[in-house]
Amino acid sequence: MKVLNRFARGLGLGFGFACSLSLAACDPGSAAGVDVPAPSSPVTEPVPGSGGATAGPIIDLGAPAMVPLFPGALVQSAHAVPVVGGTLLVLRGGQTIAAADPERDAVFLVDSLARTVRQVRLQPGDEPGRIVEGEGGTLFVALRRGGAVARIDVASASLTSSEPVCASLRGLAFDSKSGSLYVACRGGALVTLDAHDLTRKRSVLLDPDLRDVIVRENELVVTRFLSSELLVVADDGSVSRRATPSPEPGCAEATVAFRAFSVPGGQIALGHQASSNQALGEGPGGYGSSACGGNIVTRFLTLVDPDKATPEPVSVPLDPNLAPSVQDPAGNVAPASMTFQSVALPGAGPLDLAFSPKGDRIAVIAFDEGMGSQNRPVAAGSSPTDSLWLAPWDGKTLPQFVPAAEPLAVLGRRPGGQPVAVAFDAAGKFVVQSREPAMLEFEDGTSVSLSAESHADTGHQLFHMDSGLGVACSSCHPEGGEDGHVWRFAEGLRRTLPLEGGVLERAPFHWDGTLGDMGELVSEVLVKRMGLSALPSTAQVAALGSFLEQLPNLPPKEGLDGAAVKRGQAVFEREDVGCATCHKAPQYTDNRLADVGTGGKFVTPTLLGVGLRTALFHDGCAKSLADRFGPCGGTAHGKPELLSADARADLIAFLQSL
Amino acid sequence: MPGAVACLLLGAGACSAGHEPVPSAPPLGQVGNVGLEPVEVGGAGPLAPTISIDPSVACQAPPVSDPIFAAQVFDMSRPARRELFSWTTAEQAAALRQDKQLFTHVEAQGLGPGFAFIYLQQLSVDSTRSERAQLAGILAGELFAKKRYAWTDPWATRMGWPGEDYGDQLLRIVLKPEAWIVLVQGGELVVIDQDNAPVPLAQAIANPQRLGAIFYRKDAQVGGPECFSTFTSGSNGYREFILGNLAMVEEWSIGTQAIRDRLTANIEQLTRFLARIRSCPVVSSGARWNHDVSCSWGSELSLPLSDVTAYQQALAIPSDLYLPVPAQLAAMIETLQGDLFEPDPLRVNPGSL
Predict the structure, then answer these.
(1) A324: helix, coil or strand?
(2) A508 in contact with chain B, both atoms CB, cutoff 8 A
(3) Which pLDDT band, with edges at 50, 70 and 90, does B353 fall under?
(4) Number of domains in chain B
(5) Residue A303, SS3?
(6) A328 in contact with chain B, both atoms CB, cutoff 8 A
(7) Does residue A462 contact residue A544 with C-beta atoms inside 8 Å?
(8) pLDDT given at position B218
(9) Which end of chain A is more exposed for a tag (fewer CB within 10 A), N or C?
(10) Which residue segment(s) compose the domain that B214 sits in?
């Protein structure tokens, strides 16, 4: 019942959402009655509009009358994990397909001909992610929460060994030439393991927030999650060059890079987002459009040539046939150490993509479209049933996905489940992995069930669902966290806040503290600003809160000096320094407004995960904890002037441990 | 205006620091200033006075009577300058100390002679305007073959363009009172003296030794931003002083207390500017910012100046790195703090060498 108790406090203002929407009955019973089923079960809820207690007047938002969202039973999973993508692999022989399932903590091995399924059980909470194939029928799996690399023998479908690597694993790559396994960690470590026995060969510390790692001739390319930056790592472990795509120069910045891999021809495919740097509207539907046109968050497929530098700035006429990244309205192309070609993708939120082995087809998953939100309006040019987009590729110019320049060239499909990953088999036919129900769906229309264990979750669904304006909660809170982006609101700059580690304990929400609970948050953001045309019920809002509340805090940075952390904690707790006065454990916030001389009054932000954030303060002024002690720190923000350089270093070590 | 709203608008200085319970949100659909009941959330302390937040009020920088960069505004009606600053690398600074040769730079490797000189070369072969062509030929010739780029205050060029670094050592250069300035802008060449009085081109051609500096503004005439279009087009705009005629240099110096004091003053100004604009920074993209700022240089100044407009009018390179947003300003402050040095003065009067 822990979740429920915390959740009840999150809804602390008396289920304000339903009540403030003037529904006739503010009956908290259905939400309060929500328990944590295992693994997933329906929860009784009166169906809105069916004469039950929640049937009441429909609110007027100045928009068409709203209808209830998701009529039907509410469901919750004991373990619902935000979508990460990239969990599907067709093995070299073409017959076996491996699917990692972070919610069922298993890897499924599917014989695509016999349609048989074998399951490799992992430890509860391991959350398997990326899979790569080694030599001799071996698979390696990144255990994102388990902090280890698991080795699986395909023939026997068994876990043969597991090696701890780092607290938060992300990317994985196998180099057959050297027999090495490369592991990218969120904390910034790039670890080389011997693929034979998983012993550690080398560990180099790059920038934090690493995502995927790609093996190239004599070098590696590593991506960073929140910035889409690509680092080229030379043989000696040094970063030889780096670059970030800019698919919408002057309008948006590349943010979340969900997936990167090599494609036939030697380039790198990068599936990522770009987030608007234009002024953001807070009125009804304000999150639905950018001043530059399009959405405030757009998904892109970018092809990267790491070997070819972008030419010097040139003045070019606007040409609709050119990919956005090769031109900008000012006629300037910022020179970079790599060349990018980008194309916008449909959908919102996490994405996965695949290139066929011959390099003639591209598949893109639009996860949000598979969420069954029948009540949403359909964006022009798309169909509510499209959750998989297929396009031919000539190996040179990326096809236009949105809008389809040639409708017949881009095929929208609707697999039956909630697609989370896509791959091509040896014959060039697509395979889609669905999280719920757990299954693989094939291009010929057939499917195979992976597990009967249900992890259906209404909160998960709400979180990933396209609101109808091309944006989802997960667009700015990828994997339940934050996108590192600083948004330009009318009232000033505002950095996205993280959701992990018990967000309901951190109410009120938003920097100005204007949203008292989840109900108000959903009402103001999801319904009003994101333009959701259907109305979540009180229990559905509760389910969203419950889903978010279960997201564990991300592991702290690795490799910290324990003694320094301990000394730093003592500094943190010193009354005269004043950190703990407002940043109170366990959430490291006092949930109150304070003016610390940073440009206004803001709710004390949590310090959980602060060590790995790429931007700090409400306006992203500081880029690191060290910067906090510089001009960004605020004129009344504790007493850091009392601290020596060593004491500051200890304090930073402590903060990095949170 | 309710006092609490004023607190928010006027920022940190207008209200006392300290914690307050947060306000609850207005009911859905209700806008405007709403007096809200205080709500205790999470904490256990006593209720604090009610404050109101009106999300419909757009961010507006508070008016000021003393824009921080007012004294550094580069007014095109009075562009003549004698004191200029130029960044240089540590290697170049060492060579300067040893050789005492102020002008050695010919052109950046692989980058050609620079836009200004490409344009001057074009003007020099335009036979329809013989005086202009003649003067352009002088400027594009030996007189400024070895040159330095400079501006009126150090901070305004230190960050440069993304990916470029001009060095962290600062030179102060003082022109002689009799030095003339050639203005290259709007497709024309105009010569002025230190009183901003025009000098006939024929007189300048006849006395090239008096040409102390070129002021160049990259505007629409030379491929800079198109300012009267609904589209953002053309390449980035900027402005610069180009020095090359040693005969018009009265003194140059490096490592002096005066230079350090100037840097310190710049840091202090930027720190105050950061504090003032932090609650309401400029909302603009990098491309739009460059366009708007460089176009504003060609227009008459709109008075009174705000903090932001004074900042814009003091700039030389309105790149993304000069966007007046907190992170960029903080980076600039920290960069300049890193440039502070222990004085090791060298003053050179070229005429005395």
Answers:
(1) helix
(2) yes
(3) low
(4) 1
(5) strand
(6) yes
(7) yes
(8) 86
(9) N
(10) 1-353
Residue A34 in contact with residue A76, Cβ under 8 Å? yes
pLDDT band at A39 (very low <50, low <70, confident <90, very high): low
Residues contacting A171, CB < 8 A, separation 6+: A130, A142, A182, A183, A184, A210, A211, A212, A213, A222, A223
CA A639 to chain CA centroid, Å, is 36
Read off the pTM: 0.80
CA–CA separation, B278 and B276 (whole Å) = 6
CA distance A365 to A347: 8
Half-sphere exposure of A335 (CA within 13 A, CB side): 9
Q: Do B7 and A601 touch (CB under 8 A)?
A: yes
Structure confidence at residue A413 (pLDDT): 61
| Both tokens assigned to A262 | 């090599």
Q: What burial letters (b/e) apply to A157-196, b meaning 16+ CB within 10 Å?
A: bebeebbebbbbbbbbbbbeeeebbbbbbbbbbbbbbebe
Residues of B in contact with A493 (CB under 8 A): 281, 325-326
Q: What is the mean pLDDT of residues A31-55?
A: 38
Match 């072969």 to its residue by tokens.
B125
Which residues, 6 or more positions from A382, have their beta carbon under 8 angstroms from its beta carbon?
A: A346, A369, A402, A412
Work out how many CB contacts closer than 8 A connect A with B. Answer: 195
Among candidates A332, A514, A594 on the partner chain, residue whose Cβ is nearest the Cβ of B23: A514
Amino acid at A442: F
Three-state secondary structure of A178-238: CCEEEEEECCCEEEEEECCCCCEEEEEECCCCEEEEEEECCEEEEEECCCCCEEEECCCCC
pLDDT at A403 over 80: no
Radius of gyration of chain B (CA): 24
Round to whole Å and give the CA distance between A351 and A499: 20
